[in-house]
């Protein structure tokens, strides 16, 4: 992009990718460098943390097999700096997905020790029964581990014959929501993540759209894993 003349720094188009920026901007500190890519401001960020409203039909893998990767939804400059999803959502799951190029932050947020709640809106095939709520709160055993997994909270959204449930989990195992719901005799028709730890999915983001975390959001996220 630099060689194609698409990048400017401090208002000057730079065509040499090896030019030391410290020479071009001797007075400025890196955090004050303002790049422009195709005329759009692109402030310097030491580390990138973004939220994406993941649409259905996208895989979180960097080497997708059947559907495009979520990475295809990000602009080239972000893809080139090696962002990776923080944990995974299934191909058909929608909602809040965080991505970062900060390996330590990613590692801590995906560690089984991080119990920050994740809230999912679950559309179920069959009407939700009160007994299912109690069973999920008590804990159900999944096929890959004799240790029961519990929901932190379960809330049916409609008063009678509810088909939509808010499910809060403190961990993130493979297909965990789908398997827990199956364990109580129901079936997930659609799954949408609304919240991860301190962060809510921004309602202004349409499916497929992304945005940077605000400095406050990023600080709260880092503080939640003691990375301030
Ligand atoms: N649980 C699932 O079953 N799928 C997801 O995508 C996320 C949580």
Percent helix = 10-25%
Unreliable segments of 5+ consecutive residues: none
Which structural class fits the helix and strand makeup? alpha+beta
Task: Give the strand content.
Answer: 25-35%
Characterise the protein shown here.
The structure is a single chain. The protein is α+β, with helices and mostly antiparallel strands. It has helices at residues 21-24, 76-80, 103-110, 130-138, 176-183, 215-224, and strands spanning 7-9, 12-13, 34-37, 40-43, 49-54, 84-85, 94-100, 118-124, 140-142, 145-149, 153-156, 164-169, 188-196, 199-200, 210-212. The strands form three sheets. Strands 5, 6, 7, 8, 11, 12, 13, 14 and 15 form a nine-stranded mixed beta sheet that branches. The model has no long low-confidence stretch (mean pLDDT 92). Residues 89-90, 93, 175-178, 191 line the site of uracil. Uracil binds at residues 89-90, 93, 175-178, 191.
Features:
228 residues, alpha+beta, Alpha-Beta Plaits, 3 domains, 9-stranded mixed β-sheet, 4-stranded antiparallel β-sheet, 19% helix, elongated
């Amino acid at each position: 992009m630099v060689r194609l003349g698409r990048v400017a720094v401090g208002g000057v188009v730079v065509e040499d990718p090896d030019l030391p920026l410290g020479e071009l901007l001797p007075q400025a500190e890196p955090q004050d460098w303002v790049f422009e890519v195709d005329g759009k401001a692109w402030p310097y960020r030491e580390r990138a943390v973004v939220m994406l409203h993941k649409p259905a039909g996208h895989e979180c893998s960097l080497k997708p097999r059947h559907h495009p990767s979520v990475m295809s939804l990000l602009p080239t400059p972000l893809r080139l700096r090696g962002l990776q999803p923080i944990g995974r959502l299934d191909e058909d799951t929608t909602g809040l997905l965080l991505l970062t190029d900060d390996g330590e932050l990613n590692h801590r947020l995906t560690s089984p020790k991080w119990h920050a709640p994740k809230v999912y809106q679950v559309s179920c095939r069959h009407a939700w029964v009160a007994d299912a709520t109690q069973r999920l709160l008590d804990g159900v055993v999944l096929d890959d581990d004799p240790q029961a997994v519990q929901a932190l909270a379960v809330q049916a959204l409609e008063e009678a014959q509810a088909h939509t449930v808010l499910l809060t989990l403190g961990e993130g195992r493979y297909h965990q929501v789908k398997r827990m719901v199956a364990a109580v005799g129901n079936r997930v028709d659609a799954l949408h993540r609304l919240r991860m730890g301190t962060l809510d999915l921004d309602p202004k983001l349409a499916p497929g759209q992304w945005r940077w975390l605000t400095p406050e959001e990023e600080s709260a996220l880092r503080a939640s894993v003691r990375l301030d």
